[in-house]
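Interim report to the steering committee. The following record documents the input for Protein FdhE homolog (305 residues).
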Amino acid sequence: MPKQIVPSDIDPTAIGEVSAPPYVRLPDPTRLFVRRAQRLNALAEIDELGPYLRFLAALADVQHGIQDGLSDPDLPETEVRERAHAFGMPPLDRDRVASGAFFETLDRLVLAASAIEKPRAAADALDRLKLATPAERHALVRNVLADAIAADALAEHVYVAAALQLHFARLAACLDASTLVPVGDGACPVCGGPPVSSMVVGWHGSHGARFCACSLCGTLWNYVRIKCTLCGSTKGIGYVEVEGGPGTVKAETCDSCGCYVKILHQHKDPNLDPVADDVATLGLDLLVRESGYRRGSFNPFLVGY
Ligand SMILES: [Zn+2]
Ligand SMILES: [Zn+2]
């Protein structure tokens, strides 16, 4: 049975500790994927989705390993980014990704992914991707960036999504965090992407603050608690968790837009990862869906729920 928690039950920010969180924490691609791989492997030991989580862990290792010697990503010109800023747009334009630097990343990822152990469907999809025409590859890229992956075509998109995550994380890492400003509810201030989940963190100086995690570039942006991360409503917010669980992952439900996004209590367990723990808590999705809420976040590795 789900456990409903009213907002007043949530731990307040630790009293006595000054919390002055930065607005944005940019990803460090040299650490992001290796840590995610470790988390996925740890989750694979305890979760019934073990084989899939192990595959994603191997894919995260590939995302990490192929960075060595990869060409620098092609950051948009300063003037383009300044113009975007002036219009309240994020500096990275998701529609202009189909560049040489990205396809070099994808080629490397496809090659390296050939060597990892994978489920049958993932192996077949990789074979098809190797033979795909440039136009077909562009179409897969567009689907991932539009958050429009059909559930029955998940396997085709997993590798493309992994390459896009790496490409955008490397681009995001080149930006100056102090120049970034909010671009709207439910949108990453770096690339405009939706959150994959949000996290209450225990970082020094930010204890108890909540950050949304971008599903594409891995940027974390500060967002007040008890507020829908999608539509911005502060009314009708509730929390659901699986009874008997560790209490570190909950679903934040919103009656205004009818959606939910998971909230990870990373201050209780620093190993939690916004992407890995979202996939590994599929049971929570099934539970929340019974209450009529729709999944409002996007995770290219968890589609169709
Ligand atoms: Zn982003
Ligand atoms: Zn909402």
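The first strand starts at residue 2 and ends at 5. The committee is asked to note this result when reviewing the revised timeline.
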